[in-house]
Input
Amino acid sequence: MLKWTAQAVSFCRIVIDAKIAAGALLVPKAKGLVLFYAGPEKEIVIRIRIKRKDPAFSPLPNWNLAAAEATRLDANRIDETPLFKYLWSSVFEADLISTVGNSHFSQAKKYIWDYVSDRFSRETPFQAAATLICGASEKSSMRVKEILGMLANPNLRVVNKRDTKLFRDFRRLGKKEVFRLACMTNLLELRAHAKASNDNNAKELYKNQRDYFLAWRETERALFNARPQATRQWVKTNRKRVLANHCHRSTALAPEFEI
Output
């Protein structure tokens, strides 16, 4: 184990775990809805600029979008927890630098953020989750930890207004399949809201998230097609089987989103 990694692990065990034990991961409405958000990565945004022939295209910061969406849904985010506020503070930076030094600060910080995200998604007693993650980087805490962490949370009953069992059944197909499903079900909810509200901001949010997803899917499709034929067939067959087992309107997926 690298020295900075061992130091980050020690920091989590001594500092972070103590704060968690004191309740620093609890949200104001602990049994309500939690919004998980991430992305889009820079490469996705660049591809959208090229596709739209709009070099000036620059989406609103994801934090702002997530804050607005959380308000609309009356949802909490990890941002509302005392522990996450600590991670954004100068106190945390000073504490971590005193442990690992300046040279490995960024790496250790990412390790700790992933650790906190994992603990939050697995242990916080929320019962419903929503996502805003289209175009998220594979290195984001959402994709590294939260996407599977929340499915391991025994309290979770609903994701994007769908029974959590649908997502847990997708778990055996792989993390990317769960991520794709979370994106698609979120897009369906965003589209339904945009149509019902006739709100321009809602329409813009749906349009951008859809484009992020389709740009990601284009790359993912190429990677998927490069896998052995038997593997591809196994995934496709089992994907259809899982969806067939959950075949009712609330879990129907729009054809244009499917691989």
Strands lie at 33-37, 128-132, 158-159, 162-163. The CA atoms of residues 197 and 203 lie 9 Å apart. Residues 28-77+125-257 form one domain.
